[in-house]
Specification:
The chain is an alpha/beta fold and about 375 residues long. It folds into three domains: about 5-70 and about 190-200 and about 210-250, 3-Layer(aba) Sandwich (Rossmann fold); about 75-175 and about 260-315, HypD, alpha/beta domain 2 (Rossmann fold, 3-Layer(aba) Sandwich), CATH 3.40.50; about 325-370, no CATH class. Helix content is about 35%, strand content about 15%. The protein contains 15 helices and 13 strands. The strands form four sheets. It has a five-stranded parallel sheet. A four-stranded parallel sheet has the order 4-3-5-6, sandwiched between helices. A two-stranded antiparallel sheet has the order 10-13. Helix 7 (about 150-165) links the parallel strand 5 and strand 6 (about 170-175). Helix 1 packs parallel to helix 11 (about 230-245), helix 2 runs parallel beside helix 15 and helix 7 (about 150-165) packs across helix 12 (about 265-275). The longest helix is centred in the N-terminal third of the chain and has 18 residues, at about 10-25. The relative contact order is 0.15. Bound molecules: iron/sulfur cluster (SF4). Iron/sulfur cluster (SF4) binds near residues 330, 337, 343, 347 and 354. Iron/sulfur cluster (SF4) binds near residues 325, 343 and 353.
């Protein structure tokens, strides 16, 4: 397949693996003293496991899997709020397929649907808009979640709803800015890393400059990468060369898609519709300043929180994670999925305990699908 096969070429991969091994030798890193590289994006995690890059690459490099899966960073408390919404009379609740399977404290959205709630899977917020137009007597809520990749389409749906003066459409806004998640990681004293593989899709929207603080303030290299195996290998080599040369820069391996300044139309839509809010509670009882966005006052009629008087004073939310669940540590790269006591026991793709096993981009789902390991490596 043109434009794909070139990025999966075995000979080129071999050459890159050799170059990586040479650079690792020049740095002097070893299996016991490796260079830690975090791939932020769940799509990259899946490429690494699907093509076995973690096994092919020099043992002097260790991948740490980061928090760049939008479904994976949703706390149960948010799903609990969704469940309350779907139980209101006349509400049609719409969301992406992955979000329907995230466990809440007592049930997931798909379980609520099985019990009779009107929960509908959509592929785009524009689908939710169409449902609102065809059901004028019902309230249609779209569950807006994700990083900058999905923010523009949700923003666009709100702009269209405002233009059409739709009265029965609103967005439960749970979008989070990815750079704020990265800052959270960098400020965490338990985080150990030497470089980042930057997200391709998010960067397509925001460009590369929002990462400048990583190199300027934290002196850590970051290379924005594409999603094919050669993209990943080349990006690892670029990070390693920065480490070897004691540089900390923002580099762009994915220049065929990502531009320095991103997509101005998308950025305008984001800035027009959203503004930063304060705090969202993160998995594993961590409280973070992750810049959850909220809908601006101009569009308050389309804000589910205001329309349904949802008081999401997050500090009052009682978050109880399942016993032994390590989602918080896994999502921040401190623990591997197979070190979670629930992996393969209480948590499988069929019956997920945490969101990392639900999403197609989740790191636990990637381990399950590609590693062949079906049980935890430690006992409860
Ligand atoms: S195996 Fe399940 S409970 Fe453990 S970290 Fe992964 S998603 Fe969370």
């Amino acid at each position: 397949m043109k434009y794909v096969n070139e990025f999966r070429d075995p000979e080129a991969a071999q050459w890159l693996l050799l170059a990586i091994a040479e650079t690792v030798n020049e740095i002097g890193s070893t299996k016991d003293n490796p260079i830690y590289i975090m791939e932020i994006c769940g799509g990259h995690t899946h490429t690494i496991f699907r093509y076995g890059l973690d096994r092919l690459i020099s043992s002097g490099v260790k991948f740490i899997h980061g928090p760049g899966c939008p479904v994976c960073i949703l706390p149960k408390a948010i799903i609990d709020e969704c469940i309350k919404l779907v139980q209101k009379p006349g509400v049609i609740f719409t969301t992406f397929g992955d979000a329907m399977r995230i466990p809440g404290t007592h049930k997931s959205l798909i379980q609520a649907k099985a019990e009779g709630a009107d929960v509908r899977m959509v592929y785009s917020p524009l689908d939710a808009l169409a449902i609102a137009r065809s059901h004028p007597d019902q309230e249609v809520v779209f569950f807006g979640l994700g990083f900058e990749t999905t923010m523009p389409s949700t923003a666009l749906s709100i702009q269209i709803a405002a233009h059409e003066a739709l009265k029965n459409f609103s967005v439960f806004c749970n979008h989070i800015t990815l750079p704020s998640m990265i800052k959270l990681l960098l400020d965490d004293p338990y985080t150990k890393l030497d470089g980042f593989i930057g997200p391709g899709h998010v960067s397509m929207v925001i460009g590369t400059h929002p990462y400048d603080f990583i190199s300027n303030d934290y002196r850590i290299p970051i290379v924005v990468a594409g999603f094919e195996p050669l993209d990943l290998l080349q990006s690892v080599l670029m990070v390693l060369k920065q480490v070897r040369d004691r540089r900390a820069e923002v580099e762009n391996q994915y220049a065929r898609v990502v531009s320095e300044h991103g997509n101005p139309l998308s950025i305008d839509a984001i800035n027009n519709v959203y503004e930063p809010s304060s705090i969202i509670q993160f998995l594993d009882f961590k409280e973070i300043n992750a810049n959850r966005l909220r809908i601006r006052n101009n569009y308050s009629n389309f804000d589910t929180e205001r329309k349904f008087s949802i008081n999401r004073c997050i500090k009052t939310v009682n978050l109880i994670e399942p016993k032994g669940c390590a989602c918080g540590q896994v999502i921040t790269g401190q623990t591997k999925p197979i070190e979670c006591p629930q992996y393969g026991k209480g948590c499988t793709p069929e019956i997920p305990l945490g969101p990392l096993m639900v999403s197609s981009e989740g790191v636990c789902a990637a381990y399950w699908q590609y590693s062949g390991i079906r049980t935890t490596e430690i006992s409860i």
